[in-house]
Write a structure and sequence with these properties.
Length: 106
């Protein structure tokens, strides 16, 4: 009798169900993650709102996942983009900033 197929099928089942369970735990947090990520997002938004050169409050989008802050939106100059990233990095709990802010080309 060949026992390879049942063992192989069992191993595949374990791998697939483990992978699905891992995905479910990530997806359950949504885009902004847990309460710590929501607090970081709020803190970064507050810091950015203190700088009118970035436009009106909410002009830049901030998302946080596992302490990594993602910035999106548009500013007028490259220096403003860099400054926004530097300001975001100063918020408590931020481990990294991914600066996806765009700058229009003249």
């Amino acid at each position: 009798m060949n026992r390879t197929k049942p063992l192989g099928a069992s191993a595949l089942f374990v791998v697939l169900t483990g992978g699905i369970a891992g995905c479910a735990s990530i997806d359950s947090h949504g885009l902004k993650g847990g309460s710590a990520d929501r607090a970081i997002t709020s803190n970064v938004e507050t810091l950015l709102a203190q700088h009118p050169e970035f436009g009106p409050p909410g002009a830049l989008t901030v998302q946080t996942f596992n302490g990594i802050v993602y910035l999106y939106g548009q500013v007028d100059a490259g220096l403003e983009k860099r400054n926004a990233g530097d300001i975001a990095q100063q918020a408590a709990g931020v481990t990294k900033v991914v600066n996806g802010i765009s700058v229009p080309h003249s």
